[in-house]
Amino acid sequence: MRKLAILGASGHGKVVADIAELNGYDVIFFDDAFPTKEKVEHWQIIGCSTDLLNSAHDYEICIAIGNNLIRQQKQVQLKQAGGRFPVIAHPNAAISRYAMIAEGAVVMAGATINAFAQVKCGVIVNTCAVVEHDCMLNEFCHISPNATLAGGVEVGKCAWVGAGAVVKQLVSVNGYSVIGAGSVVINDIPERATAVGVPAKIKEV
Predict the structure, then answer these.
(1) Is the pTM of this model over 0.70?
(2) Least buried of 1, 47, 58, 110, by fewest C-beta within 10 Å?
(3) Catalytic residue among 12, 90, 133, 142
(4) Which pLDDT band, with edges at 50, 70 and 90, does 95 fall under?
(5) What DSSP character marks residue 164?
């Protein structure tokens, strides 16, 4: 049985572990709360991120950390150390044979990724999210539960689309931006902006 090392023993990590087991993996956890925290539910935590870094070449790895910037940092470090990053996709996700999904991406139960969508490395497509045809999800972005991206949407690097948000076709949500839960995006969102509401408007800092 293949071993999957999961970095991050949070709620997100538990969901990743469940999906991994459905795909035939034997799961072990690493978390920086170790050794104070020794288990997550019934799964053992066997070390911290430094321990995983020192043994990265021994494992397939999933970074189960919701923070996009930290997930990116950890995956880059562990890849340089020889880690391998499979795609972890729930068996009940609907993924087109014409979609492209890159290393380290996670696709949760009920998610849909349609034809010619591109999902780059380290992306999270969360529970029941819809990624329509020809979408481009750039590195380490996160599409939250029940969010819907219509056809041809581009989501930038490390951007976050909140739960239940809707993004109109051909709109760009640029890098490091945040779309609030339940928002409806009908215009392009600039880099590092936060947009909320129906229709979504840029929130002033």
Answers:
(1) yes
(2) 1
(3) 133
(4) very high
(5) T
